[in-house]
Amino acid sequence: VSPLSFQSLLVLGLVAAVCLGLNLLFLTVYLICLCCCKRDRDPESKRPHSCCVTWMAVTAGLICCAAVGVGFYGNSETNDGVFQLLYALDHANQTLTGIDSLVASTTLQMQGGLEQHLARLTELLASRGDYVQTLKFTQQLAGSIVLQLQGLPAWRGVSADLTELSGQVAYVEYYRWLAYLLFFILVLTVCLLACLGLAKHSRCLLVMVLCCGLLMLLLSWASMAVDTAAAVGTSDFCVAPDKFIMNQTDDEISAEVVHYYLYCDQSLSSPFQQALTVFQRSLTTMQIQIQGLIQYALPLFPTAEKDLLGVQQLLNSSETGLHQLTALLDCRGLHKVRRGLTGDQLWGAPAVPPAPVSHQDYLDGLIGICYDGVEGLLYLGLFSLLAAAAFSTVICAAPRAWQQLAGRCRDYDDMDEEDPFNPQARRIAAHRPPRGQLRSFCSYSSSLGSQSSLHPPAQTVSNAPVSEYMNQAVLFGGNPRYENVPLIGRGSPPPT
């Protein structure tokens, strides 16, 4: 099984584009039907449409909140999975760097410090041919060790590749996480604007919400395409990651090394076993030879003590490096294998019953990207679907809310301007010049005429003077009203 090609992932993105087209087609048909089926509504029919808009707004708000919650969880899970992969890559890179450091230091000791000591010892022990032969044999063994170290795989290139890969993944993940975080904030902002526009009955806000809703709908389906392609591609890789990595190797030696580290089975022989065995045997023989020289040659040549002890110290240091190198080159040092479980069995049933588990770089990285990462991508895909549904609902509710506002303005304009309880008529009367004085008790101009023509009787039953009524009218009405003047003579209170 090989991961899907770029063309296959592009087809998955086109599926989301088709869904976007169908969504826009549905909204277009809905708006056309809403405009074509527009009819005058009786006052009794306003309440059901108002309730419809209210429920649509409430539904869109709830879906937005649910979508953002799901999106936050999916974004966090994806981020955790990617950082688990990055941690595994960094730890593996440290192991490979440690191998490089040990190989380089051991080679330097054998080619630099050891050769210098042996050259001086050859001059000091030149009078004894057997001792000189022992030193030449020791130098040959050192050359054999250097040759074996040079036969080990060159880890520097692998370390550089892992470092570059880790940096690229961290860079992409940071901006992916930040982009989704801004996307969530934008979704909540548009939802709040929609609620504010419906509450304030603002046409400007409704137009803005309609435009933002269309934009967010496009972004939601684009996010759906990216999440689907990423989730499917990652899932296809996670089905058989070992085979995919094996297919990336070029030569037979690299394939053997990669196979050893990926599967790390006890039945597999280490590709470094021969080199490490030669290293160990050569080092042991060299230590025996130098120990003999210290025992037999040192009493005869006391001046050679410093160089002999220096060689012995270098050999002891090389032996310590050998043990460390053996531990690092062992697959259990880099792989720390879970017994009986390989990458191919990651999504399948274990081949053996559960056993004590120790974390490993390879399997930790796969678990991070194949479990947390894919799960997070699926939740982000669900977020995209919920966001698309929420903004589709908002777009459907906006024209109905616009019609409601238009209907209210139309009903407001149809009010009788002569109605004294119509606030609009009062505003118009305040700005219009007074017409001819009519004898009416329901307008300001007519009251002026009636006040000049009426002569209230001398005796009044009410104890409140006219000025008191005027002051009360000014205080409670804001404008001096004279409707109460004709009623004073009858002893009736002023109208409320």
UniProtKB/TrEMBL annotation:
Keywords: Cell membrane, Chloride, Chloride channel, Glycoprotein, Ion channel, Ion transport, Membrane, Transmembrane, Transmembrane helix, Transport. It comes from the Eukaryota. One of its GO terms (cellular component) is plasma membrane. It holds the Pfam family Tweety. It is found in: Cell membrane. The chain crosses the membrane at residues 6-32, 53-73, 177-198, 205-224, 377-398. GO terms for molecular function: intracellularly calcium-gated chloride channel activity; volume-sensitive chloride channel activity. It is a multi-pass membrane protein. Its main location: membrane. Probable chloride channel. Belongs to the tweety family. This is Protein tweety homolog. It comes from Chloropsis cyanopogon.
